[in-house]
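User: Please work through this fold.
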Amino acid sequence: MPKQAMEKFKRCSISINRPLIPLKLALFCFYGIGGFASPFTTLLLKQRGVTLSELSAMTIFAPIMQILGTSVSGVVSDKIGRSKPVLATNLLLLIIYKLPVVLCTPFDKMWNKSLKLLKKIDALMFMIVIFILGTLFNFTIDFCLWYLDELNASSLLIGIIPSISAVYGLPFLLTSNWWLKKLGTHQIFILALLAYVFCVLGYSVLKNPWLALALDLPNIFTYYLLWVAVIEHSHSIAPERLTSAVIVISGAVHYNAGKTTSGLIGGIVMSEFGGIMAFRLLAIICFSVFVLYTLFFILRRKHISKKHHIDQNGDSKENVKACVIFTI
């Protein structure tokens, strides 16, 4: 670590802006509710009988609205200000709040099955990967635009970036089932980790803000294909009737727990040492988890193939014994 960075680290202290505490609490609740909305929506749709293919088709509307909405948000904020769109959004939320709600019957108690799930190494590694991906996701959402603003990026560019991400991801979302069968869930998780490494390293050396449009390409793996893989992987590791609960937990870990960690990194490291140091720190963390999960995947595949080979040999020996007995 450079000498100047060490001196800054020794003087590092957290300053609290007390007048902004109510606003921060309100934003914390808002983001917390928003983070739980997506996984709980998945749980509700699952209880109502919606299949995985139908759910994938429903998620197409999100990038379409990103393309239509965020592409003009920067221009609109410059023309009419920022308070009026916020007021309109709050009024829309009040209207949604008044909509009737259909209550679904809860599942039976699944305590024993939940304990079995926690003991699975596959489920533990899955949650670690989701947590790291959530940290990177929330950091890029919250602090990349701030970083681009420091690079004197225009409001048009800041408004275009989310819509460009949707343009990149929409074709892959439409063909997500094919990609899932071609790659597999574990490979998509590995590619998502590797994509984030290149993304944050790219931001750390970024000089021209418009080149950030190319750094949104990893969202194909880190968001659009990721959640299709999460839903599919939840079916494979969850015990009976706990699939929806695993999806909800993974969403909470990704959006809420990951947001807490990204806020700490952005608030402390980025403010004290700058955005470059924060991006490089995240790249090191993500690359470490990438190596760990890749080794886990290789060892897991070898173990499964070895077990399958042993089972096949056992079946063949039993068939030989049966043939001998039948002959006698």
